[in-house]
Design brief:
Elements (H helix, E strand, L loop, with lengths): L2 H12 L21 E6 L2 E6 L2 E7 L9 E2 L5 E6 L6 E6 L5 E5 L3 E8 L2 E7 L9 E7 L7 E4 L10 E8 L2 E7 L12 E6 L4 E6 L9 E4 L8 E9 L5 E9 L4 E5 L13 E10 L5 E10 L14 E13 L2 E6 L5 E4 L4 E7 L6 E7 L2 E14 L9 H5 L4 E5 L2 E5 L4 E9 L12 E13 L2 E11 L12 E6 L5 E6 L4 E5 L13
Antiparallel strand pairs: 1-2, 1-27, 2-3, 4-5, 5-6, 6-7, 8-9, 9-10, 10-11, 12-13, 13-14, 14-15, 16-17, 17-18, 18-19, 20-21, 21-22, 22-23, 24-25, 25-26, 26-27, 28-29, 29-30, 30-31, 31-32, 32-33, 33-34, 34-35
Length: about 500
């Protein structure tokens, strides 16, 4: 097992409380009260309900600051002070009241559960070794923050701490001593901090870049809680590799997501991939905004000076992880996206080459300008996976049949279709005289508006081309007749598959 895999395995063991909080069911109506989000500019934190202002607080905010929502979805907060952080800006979206909470030399703001947040405060600046305290505040009341000692190691120079993701009762932090950092921000040490100030090291990142961003959800398309973390390595000023690791706290299983599908065919030499944002969508899938590039170098036998060796081959675009491959959802260019449901989303598009973006609220494909010069966006946690994917999928698990075909659907969201058809050996289907066997492997995805399926591999006996082609997509529905399911193909065709309780009826089970 590699060093990096051991590190993430240790994190998994430490994050065993992830599935404690239950989420509120998401209303699919685009005009519902769940279209609540926040955005950050250089001088204000703003909470919005669709295109309506909910609350605003002004200040000076750093370009790398990230707003967070409390896990109850009521408050949004961010550290204020671009150069000298001394307080936390908070908006209460229920009362529309904004306020500041004192927090001297704050770093690493995280949500611990309910209305509770915490941040790390430096208690001294040196030259003695720095020590760190946890300032914990329950935003539902106005009492001063509780100051707790922590187990973060004391150090000089000061260790820079960053909060990666907040979880029920604890948070994941990354820390590094400035004199040990590379120019790209790594390596770092990872810590799990609980709400009482206990900070446990879970290993080093073994990377020369900063870890992150990261995203967590209590429910996912996989049927349970997951944490996703971006890592990688810089090989040169141009060449860089970023990838994503998905962690399952319940089983301690680690999945390293392949990034090859992001780079177009013919562009797999020297270059790089950058993951600028990741989040778990309302449908339980992991989403990301990703960019890829090639590196241009002068040939040894023909030296040349190249001012900008980076050539973009995949602009910053929106991708969704389906099974083990990334599927492009929007070609962009995009900086960040958050979907509330299948009809409503907020999108942040680049504003030239600056650190700022332009924010739009989009409903049913129609966009409305919300703000310019935006640094970051955040959507409250209950806009994430709002249904139980396994419970939704369970009625389809089993063995189904129709004229000569058997469809087996498994609880792990995969399936197998086996059947017989007429064709010609080595030829195509629908040519008489030869009965051949075909087999297809399927992958299903549970979404609020239905269950989708994709053929990932298929084969026919004796080289006969199978009827089910790789890439074929369909929707899976329950038929009005009990015990029958429908496969609606993207081409408009419908096949009816019967379950074990349905007797053979030629007019019911078939294509």
């Amino acid at each position: 097992m590699s060093v990096r895999k051991r590190i993430f395995l240790a994190i998994l063991v430490s994050l065993n409380l992830l599935g404690v909080v239950a989420l509120v069911r998401q209303d699919e109506t685009p005009c519902s009260a769940n279209l609540l989000y926040a955005y950050l500019t250089q001088d204000s934190l703003v909470a919005m309900l669709g295109t309506r202002l909910v609350g605003k607080i002004t200040g000076r905010f750093s370009s790398d600051a990230s707003p967070i929502w409390t896990l109850d979805g009521r408050y949004v907060a961010v550290i204020e002070g671009a150069d000298d952080p001394q307080q936390i800006a908070v908006i209460d979206t229920k009362t529309h009241i904004s306020r500041y909470i004192p927090c001297r030399d704050c770093t690493g703001l995280a949500a611990f559960g309910g209305s509770e947040i915490g941040a790390i405060s430096l208690t001294n600046q040196g030259p003695a070794p720095a020590s760190y305290r946890l300032l914990r505040s329950n935003l539902i009341d106005t009492a001063p923050p509780v100051s707790l000692s922590t187990d973060f190691p004391t150090s000089w120079p000061i260790m820079k701490l960053r909060s990666l993701v907040g979880l029920p009762g604890q948070a994941l932090f990354a820390g590094a001593e400035p004199d040990k950092l590379s120019a790209y921000g790594g390596p770092e040490e990872l810590f799990v901090l609980d709400r009482e100030g206990s900070a446990r090291s879970v290993g080093g990142t073994d990377s020369n870049i900063q870890v992150g961003p990261a995203a967590a959800t209590t429910r996912s398309i996989y049927g349970g809680p997951r944490v996703a973390i971006v890592g990688g390595w810089h090989n040169s000023a141009c060449e860089a590799t970023q990838d994503i690791t998905i962690l399952d706290p319940a089983t301690q299983k680690i999945v390293n997501v392949q990034m090859d599908s992001v780079r177009p065919a013919g562009h797999h030499n020297a270059g790089g991939i950058a993951v600028t944002d990741i989040w778990w969508g309302y449908d339980g899938h992991l989403y990301a905004t990703i960019q890829a590039w090639d590196c241009r170098y002068g040939r040894d036998d023909e030296p040349e000076i190249i001012d900008e060796p980076k050539v973009i081959v995949t602009p910053s675009s929106l991708w969704r992880l389906e099974a083990d491959r990334w599927v492009k959802v929007d070609s962009g260019p995009l900086r960040a996206v958050r979907m509330f449901n299948r009809e409503a989303r907020v999108i942040l598009v680049p504003d030239g080459n600056s650190v700022y973006g332009v924010l739009y609220m989009e409903i049913r494909g129609r966009g409305v300008l919300v703000a310019r010069s935006v640094l970051a966006i955040a959507v409250r946690r209950d806009s994430d996976t709002s249904f139980d994917a396994k419970k939704t999928f369970a009625p389809y698990v089993g063995v189904w049949w129709q004229h000569g075909y058997t469809l087996t659907i498994k609880s792990d969201f995969t399936g197998e279709l086996v059947g017989f058809n007429f064709g010609t050996p080595g030829g195509t289907i629908d040519q008489p005289g030869y009965l051949y066997r075909e087999r297809a492997i399927l992958v299903f995805a549970v979404k609020i508006y239905g269950i989708t399926g994709t053929v990932t591999s298929s084969e026919g006996s004796d080289g006969t081309a199978p009827a089910w082609k790789v890439g074929t997509k369909f929707m899976l529905h329950m038929n009005a007749y009990p015990g029958v399911i429908d496969l609606n193909y993207s081409q408009g065709k419908i096949s009816h598959y019967c379950g074990p309780r349905i007797a053979y009826r030629s007019g019911l089970c078939g294509g």
